Amino acid sequence: MTLDIHDPEAVRAQVREGYGAIARQGSSCCGPGKSCCGGGNAQAVAAAVGYDEAELASLPDGANMGLSCGNPTAIAELKLGEVVIDLGSGGGFDVFIAARKIGPAGKAIGVDMTADMIAKARKNARSFKEKAGLNNVEFRLGEIEHLPLADNSADVIISNCVINLSPDKPQVWREMARVLKPGGRVAVSDLALLLPIPRSIAEMVEALVGCIAGAVLVKETEQMVRDAGLVDITLTEKHDYVDKMIDWKDPLFRKIMENLPPGAKISEFITSLYVTAKKSLL
């Protein structure tokens, strides 16, 4: 099935449909226990991108759906009492990890545009409260291009393999700058391109929901962050993520390989990317 990549509402509809199905089925678009943005089972994906066993064991059942392509909470330098926003929070995976780091005086808020994901996350939140003894999480339905949050209200914004799904990425970065407090910071993991991908891949619906078709070049990401007014920008490419997906024989990555030029490698086109930045104090 092909997608009109120039129609923002068509892109949003496909993302809602794909991730709504993941939420309802308790699995991913790649099959039971598989990852949408990766391969192997959910625990393996999370461990591969840097989550430790204790963090994973502390999560409510079903919060980890294997949708990570990095670990933004590891680079966010979270502190007790901070307000943390997670863009595209899904079942609450990173929200619950952040909530433990910021403690009872902090607040972890997840924003997701898929109603089924919000319902799943709120159910998980009840379990989290019982398990962790914390009542510091909240989930809001909304688009990351139009965040349901006040100006200058967040200490930290995190996101994990989600911004690539947006049809208006510059607007996402502008919203992040709006919502951050002066001196607030961003910690994002996402998939990015090292080289432009063939049009046949860009138009694959499964490649969109699988976080590939919507990815943009690393240099484009940097420019969007800069244009939003954020400063102290650092971009770190994590090429081993893609190599691990290939090792796990992920079906999406196999299909992408079939649409690459002969002899080309996926890792020549796609990388996991960490982005950190701050909002100026001025």
Describe the structure in your own words.
With 282 residues, the chain is an alpha/beta fold. The protein has a single domain (8-279), classed as Vaccinia Virus protein VP39 (Rossmann fold), CATH 3.40.50. It is 38% helix and 20% strand. The chain contains twelve helices and seven strands. The protein has helices at residues 8-25, 42-48, 53-57, 72-75, 93-102, 115-132, 169-179, 199-202, 205-209, 218-227, 240-247, 251-258, and strands at residues 83-87, 107-112, 137-141, 154-160, 180-193, 230-238, 270-279. It has a seven-stranded mixed β-sheet, with helices on both faces. Helix 6 (115-132) links the parallel strand 2 (107-112) and strand 3. Helix 1 (8-25) crosses helix 6 (115-132). The longest helix has 18 residues, at 8-25. The chain starts with 7 loop residues before the first helix and ends with a strand. Residues 28-39 have low confidence and may be disordered.
Provide the β-strand percentage band.
15-25%
Structural class: alpha/beta
SSE string:
HHHHEHEHEEHEHHHEHHE
Helicity range: 25-40%
Overall mean pLDDT: 87
So what's the overall shape?
A: globular
Fourth CATH level, the homologous superfamily: Vaccinia Virus protein VP39
Enumerate the strands of the largest sheet in spatial order, edge to edge or round the barrel.
Answer: 3-2-1-4-5-7-6
Annotation keywords:
about 20% strand; Rossmann fold; alpha/beta; about 280 residues; 7-stranded mixed beta sheet
